[in-house]
Amino acid sequence: MSKYDDNYQLLIDAINFKNKRPLTSFSGPAVGAILSGMTIAELVADPVKGTYKTIDFIHEIDDECGGINLVNSIPTGLNMVVQISMLWYSKVLIPGIDIGENTVWQVQEKKLIDSDQYDEIIKEGFGNFAKKNIIPNIIDIDYMNKYLKIFAESQETIFNKYKDMGYPITQDFRCPTTMIPFEWLSGMRSMSELLLDCYTQLDKVKEVCDAIFEEKYAETEAGLEKVKTNRDVVGAWTGGWRTASAMVSPKIWDTLVWPYMKKSAEQVIHAGKISVLHLDQNWNRDIERFGELEEGKYILNTDGMTDLRAARKKLPKTCFMGDVPATLLTAGTPEQVYDYVTRLIDDIGPEGLIVTAGCDIPESATRENIVAMFKAANEWS
Amino acid sequence: MSNITTYLAELKMEELPQEVEKELAAGKDPKEILAECQEGMVIVGEKFANEEYYVSDLIMSGVLFKEVAALLEPHLKQGDVEYKGKVVLGTVENDVHDIGKDIVGNMLKASGFEVVDLGVDVPPQKFVDALKESDAKVLALSCLLASCYDSILATVNAVKDSGLRDQVKIVIGGGPVDETIVDYSGADAYGVNAQDAVDLCEGAIK
After folding, report:
1. Could you give the number of structural domains in chain A?
2. What CATH code is carried by the domain that includes residue A40?
3. Chain A interface residues (partner B, CB cutoff 8 A)
4. Which residue ranges form the domains of chain B, and what is each CATH number?
5. DSSP state of B83
6. For residue A247, is it within any domain?
7. What span, in angstroms and rounded, lies between the C-alpha atoms of A219 and A177?
8. B67 CB near a chain A CB, below 8 Å?
9. What is the pTM of this model?
């Protein structure tokens, strides 16, 4: 079997709780290129070069740390400003243009729509509404199209390169996902304004969320059909950050978060793919609800703020991916990182565990700390 | 418990402003209304600590308080409002995120602090200048980016270099901030949410 096939099988084993050792996954859209000498502005301006720099970086540290099995949230030739603009529906400041060349891209969230425009979304359809009222206000269309073209031309070669290097990609842009409308509305309305709507007109917010979800669900369905039989397209990303349990009240979570998150995950699962639930922030209160999803078909990717020890007791057979904090990877020592990972594996066991950074490896992480994170997993006994 | 305290504690978005307007029209002392609101904020903090309320509820309590403060402002004379203490607040250099900072600012104001809000992407020297000018005893730094830990460090060092470090408590907050960053930067403490920020500032002025 090839390295890719070995790692692919290990991933399937981990999701099904059959692995005996913890797996390792490299995640991070920028750090590999930055530690290879590119500035953040250069990475944004030339995402394809940044991707190949990242692939070389992963290959270099693979030997040094005793092996990397998987990759997750890695660059694939898509400009990060374009990607995040479309993910948040907010303006993203461009390194080297709007902000310093070594300052990371940042979402500048501000109110783009009023609550009385919810009816327009419902009437016109979300895609049409966004094309007219949101996208031109958050990104230069020529800039976006230029980078989408580059991505379209380069992505297949890049995905093949990751495969040739032996790394299955756990969450893959080729695998579409429907997501949680609350996150997009938060970007368009601003979080405070959206929350105010939730307290004053919850039914209307629910109505607009339903309309957005239904439209996106149909688009996703068509996209999933195209990748259904492609074994290398392993899974899809459904992310939550503003929708974390610590952020919103149980009423909002039960009404505007979980129903959509669950349906989004189930849609991916029904297409024979793995749902990778990227959970930033603290999800302790509701973590048990993820047990409603089909066992062995999803991964919970947490960032260090959710208590994985408590989660393991509630979800004894769920695959976790995480959760070394950004703080440790940036400002900690290799010894601290090594200890953190060792304790994590000791406490929750190696089965169903993929060791990686919480969220992503930050661009400010040190090489030594990244190596220590993977080394600890590989040397655990 | 007064209606105003109850309405704020229970986040009654429509009833509270109506009640404030009604009581103002009836001639109630605006300082008393303010005190009742602050009492309501204490209850919000308790509910948050007991996990009856979550961050969204804290945000809404801040929004409500801001609305009430705007209604009271024309009725208050200079010197009417007594502050618990003064806090200089801002997002550190190279970081333009303002949501967390604004939530903390609202919560601090609602809890009786005077807040000197310097905005986002604030250079270390600007924090120092504001501390000198305002004589604040608390510096609250917001940071949402792992790449900006050095900005926290530089700000703490600038405060040290200015000779103010012994007189000022420095608290930090934001998504990717924890004890590791307190140790790294030499700040005094960190908070994971806006209520923590209020508690830390209360502790700092005691």
Report:
1. 1
2. 3.20.20.210
3. 93, 99-100, 103-104, 106-109, 190-192, 195-196, 198-200, 245-250, 252, 280-281, 285, 325-332, 336, 362-365
4. 3-75 (1.10.1240.10), 85-205 (3.40.50.280)
5. P
6. yes
7. 9
8. no
9. 0.94
